[in-house]
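Quick question, first post here. What does this chain look like in 3D?
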Amino acid sequence: MKFLLVFDFDHTIIDENSDTWIVKCAPERKLPNGLRNSYQPGHWTEYMGRVFVYLGDNGVKEDEMRRTMTTIPFTAGMIDLLGFIGKNKELFDCIIVSDSNTVFIDWILKAADFHKVFDEVFTNPAAFSSTGYLTVQHFHAHHCAKCPKNLCKRKVLKEFLDKQLERGVNYTQIVYIGDGGNDLCPVMFLKKNDVAMPRQGYTLEKKISQLAQSLSPVQCSVLVWSSAIDILSYLKILIKE
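> Answer (accepted):
Ran it through. Tokens below.
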């Protein structure tokens, strides 16, 4: 009996958006209007690439970025939840699927000593160039019209599950924990026995309830959370059953 926990990162594990938090490193802690207005829907990764160039041009170094990123607060109750999962790793496989990037997630998880809780992190690859600029790439290519062009979380989840099946790992239940519009695609892939846990008041919860109103509800169960303690309570019930 093994459960798969799938976490989004921004506004789920941490209580902020890591990509917008980095702007605190910019001169006067803000971006020029031209740069801010250059974002085009579905092309967030390219936009962040331009933000990182701007930070680099303004002499923002890796150390300063790391210090800034590790001040992001975790969502209420999340430290307790991740501690509990870490103590029960024989029952839970745990992955992150996020539109953030490898550098930010790595810094934040390692600073809080939570990197061992997660078996794999699927996010946009990032690295510092020889000139000290942070660069970010698309996670993968896909053909899903619903998702931003750099990342379809359903595709990531499906490929992970297929790979696990080849290794002989079949999950009793998948629990998907997220908040954003790009979490809807993987949630719609979940089966009847699985559970979607959208964060209260965020886009994912609204989109799931719109689907229910249009009489095409998701197949899985839906449990809304406002603090990670709600998720922790559910997991405790799950492993007692």
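The CA atoms of residues 70 and 111 lie 7 Å apart.
The longest strand covers residues 92-101.
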